[in-house]
Write a structure and sequence with these properties.
Pfam family, one: PA14
CATH topology of the largest domain: Alkaline Phosphatase, subunit A
Keywords: Signal
CATH architecture of the largest domain: 3-Layer(aba) Sandwich
Organism: Akkermansia biwaensis
Number of strands: 32
Helix content: 10-25%
Shape: globular
InterPro entries: Alkaline_phosphatase_core_sf, GAG_Ulvan_Degrading_Sulfatases, PA14/GLEYA, PA14_dom, Sulfatase_N
Strand content: 15-25%
Structural class: alpha+beta
Distance between the termini: 24 Å
Protein name: N-acetylgalactosamine-6-sulfatase
Length: 717
């Protein structure tokens, strides 16, 4: 079916050009004219929900009050909570680091991440839109400092093809591979890399020899972040560019390694951590403290020395060190007079660990999450899809826009951050993103928040630990193939899945965060919807085959009338946007039933088509799309909530792409009947603009999808 052209009248009519701030990028616009914030995204490693002191305040909001004998303070993070918003029901993408980071950076949940799922440590994320590339396109200076872990090399045994410098970041300083995050004095045993995209001849360099062995990773990355911000602000006097900093600390992951010195006094421009170059090396000033070599891995924060075991002292000190860096960064923002319009996000990649890490030089046993109730009032830890393994500590501070002292219980997930930061930066949300902007919630307008998707799948052969405060049925629960889907605000969870028709346990995690009462028996209709949602929002991934991949996605019950609905938008679109999240309305709307004409006119436009495609019989289907060859033509197709065809970031106009999303055959398994379809197209209206969809299926050779297969709901549902 040639879905375009069909808008000749509209595209050649004298429709006035419309300004679309917040939804389109105009490369010729002068920088610095809008109130785009600077953005710092801080990600820590394996810090549990219960390790954040502020989460224990107002316990009546947590759904369950529990006794907590041991606690440690995080004063800077507590101040962030008072000065911004706590997201107490925010979920990681997965209960382990590599897939969580992949989904965060790409803005997709684990059902549509193409490469990194489960334990695919160090495999390079696909070349698609990322936090870095989207904000770079929005006119930001972008930097990633700290742990990457999804670029290649390391345990992937492959080349570095998805490094930060290849995924939208102008600058990188840190560790590339997953295991390097276990070494909190990284230059002792692992490589450290730097890339400066602003250099005359940028190169990816291993700078391990320039980093002293006394450099503690939290201090090293904190000091480098401070220096990069100060350098960027100097250049911004000329460029007017805001900045985006992705700061990923390895703490408090594994090995329980602590600094050798107290945190330097003061903070900001002149105090706290400072970047020092000395005798051919460069690092944080703490690495050059006379005590650093002698006392390496010995410093315990004084207030935490009261704990009765070394493990607790070290775990709490590692987090307190990160807390000190947060205080130092905020001090810096105030010194630079940019604090008011800087957005800081703080979160963790998954629930708390109980492992010792791989650094045998600094081995102090494994953390016991029970001591601090690092999982909060929930059950589960890292690698569990119970709440304790998935729900992560999350704070957001932006004095100019976020009201003080908010606590949100709205569910959200990692893939929402790409949409949120795009919204804050004034660019459209890419169609490939599975997320929704959380800006309404953050800015005190939760009543205007669009509902999002919470979805997880993760396969691991271990068991939930048998901690004494976990429920009996949770102790020793076999993990296996786990899957989470939220429907109507309730959580569906199934573990050890060997059959795609296995029932979900259903929990109201707002009122029952320990997941003590399974509601499944009383909700058969919801059970069916959860099963449908669990299949219709995901795609198979070549490296990670599951029992869900060949299960037939159910059709929907709907009454369709011929044709697809269309909505026309004007603007400069750097990618195919999620038109549902556009802030400006369509300039025209209608229904196309017999597309047979050509687009004309010079304007740059975007078109969204929505409705149903009628699948003739059960089976495996492959879809194909071709746009016109006009420069800038792009398209993106979803079927239900799943990604069907991506002809966006790396697409060459005029070529055919398929729903295989890879080199191997990867069909979509569908039940006969109506399936919701959403097609986005952007380009310049001109002679010969087209968009063609084909399919191949059971008893169906590859051919254009007939016009008669498309329909829409007349009532708009």
């Amino acid at each position: 079916m040639k879905l375009l052209p069909f808008l000749t009248v509209l595209l050649t009519a004298a429709i006035p050009c419309m300004a679309v701030p917040g939804n389109a990028v105009n490369p010729s616009a002068k920088p610095g004219k809008t109130a785009r914030p600077n953005i710092i995204f801080i990600l820590v490693d394996d810090m549990g929900w219960g390790d954040l002191d502020s989460n224990w305040s107002q316990e009546n909001l947590n759904g369950r009050t529990v006794g907590r004998k041991n606690e440690f303070k995080t004063p800077a993070l507590s101040a962030m909570a008072r000065e911004g918003i706590q997201l107490r029901r925010h979920y990681s993408a997965a209960p382990v680091c590599a897939p969580a980071r992949a989904s965060l950076l790409l803005g997709v949940h684990q059902g549509t991440s193409r490469v990194v799922r489960n334990n695919r440590f160090d495999h390079p994320i696909e070349d698609s839109h990322t936090l870095g590339s989207v904000l770079k396109e929005a006119g930001y200076d972008t930097a990633a400092i700290g742990k990457w872990g999804v670029g290649g090399g390391g345990q992937s045994n492959g080349p570095v093809t998805g490094g930060p410098h290849q995924r939208g970041f102008n600058y990188f300083y840190g560790i590339l591979d997953h295991l390097a995050g276990h070494f909190h004095y990284p230059s002792e045993s692992r490589d450290i890399f730097e890339y400066n995209g602003y250099a005359p001849n940028p190169e990816w360099k291993n700078i391990k020899e320039q980093v002293p062995l006394t450099a503690y990773s939290t201090d090293l990355f904190g000091a480098r972040a401070k220096q990069w911000i100060m350098d960027q602000r100097k250049s911004a006097r000329k460029t007017g560019k805001p900045f985006f900093l992705y700061l990923a600390f390895p703490a408090p992951h594994g090995s329980l390694t602590v600094p050798g010195t107290p945190y330097p006094s003061g903070g900001g421009v002149k105090g706290g951590l400072q970047w020092v170059k000395k005798n051919g090396t460069e690092s944080a000033n703490t690495a050059f403290d006379p005590k650093a070599e002698k006392d390496k891995d010995t410093y315990i924060y004084p207030d935490n020395s009261r704990f009765p075991n070394e493990v607790a002292k070290r775990h709490s000190t590692m987090i307190r060190r990160v807390d000190d860096v947060v205080a130092d960064l905020i001090h810096l923002l105030k010194d630079l007079k940019i604090d008011n319009n800087t957005m800081i996000v703080f979160t963790s990649d998954n629930g708390p660990h109980n492992e010792g890490g791989a650094d045998m030089k600094h081995q102090h046993g494994a953390q016991n999450p029970q001591f601090f109730k690092s999982y909060g009032m929930m059950d589960g830890i890292k690698r569990d899809c119970w709440e304790g393994g998935m729900r992560v500590p999350t704070l957001v501070r932006w004095p100019a826009r976020i009201p003080k002292g908010q606590v949100s219980l709205q569910p959200g997930q990692f893939h929402d951050w790409l949409a949120t930061l795009a919204d804050a930066a004034g660019v459209p949300v890419p169609a490939r993103s599975d997320g929704v902007s959380l800006m309404p919630t953050l800015t005190g307008h939760a009543d205007k928040q669009k509902p999002g998707i919470v979805y997880t799948e993760y396969n691991h052969g271990g068991k939930t630990p048998g901690y004494k405060d976990f429920l009996g049925e949770h102790k020793g629960a076999q993990r296996g193939q786990q899957q989470i889907v939220f429907v109507d605000g309730l959580k569906g969870l199934r573990m050890g899945v060997k059959d795609a028709d296995k029932d979900f346990m259903i929990f109201d995690t707002l009122k029952d965060p320990q997941e003590s009462k399974d509601l499944a028996a009383s909700k058969p209709e919801l059970q069916a919807r959860m099963k449908a949602a669990s299949l219709s929002n995901r795609r198979a991934s070549h490296p990670s085959k599951t029992v869900f991949d060949t299960a037939l996605v159910p059709a929907v019950e709907a009454k369709g009338v011929p044709g697809l609905k269309w909505s026309l938008y004007e603007g400069e679109f750097p990618w195919v946007p999620d038109f549902r999240q556009m802030k400006t309305p369509a300039v025209s709307q209608g229904v196309t039933q017999a597309p047979s004409v050509k687009m004309n006119g010079p304007r740059k436009r975007g078109v969204e088509l929505t409705g149903y495609v009628n699948v003739p019989e059960d089976g495996a289907y492959t879809f194909y799309l071709t746009t016109d060859a006009n420069k800038g033509s792009k398209a993106f197709v979803r079927l239900h909530g799943m990604e069907l065809i991506d002809a966006d970031k790396v697409y060459h106009p005029g070529t055919e792409v398929s729903s295989d999303l890879g080199k191997e055959s990867n069909p979509v398994y569908l039940k006969a009947g109506l399936h919701p379809i959403r097609i986005g197209y952007v380009g310049t209206a001109g002679s010969g603009s087209t968009l063609t969809l084909k399919w191949k299926g059971p008893n169906l050779p590859k051919q254009e999808i007939p016009v008669s297969a498309f329909s829409h709901s007349p009532d708009g549902k």
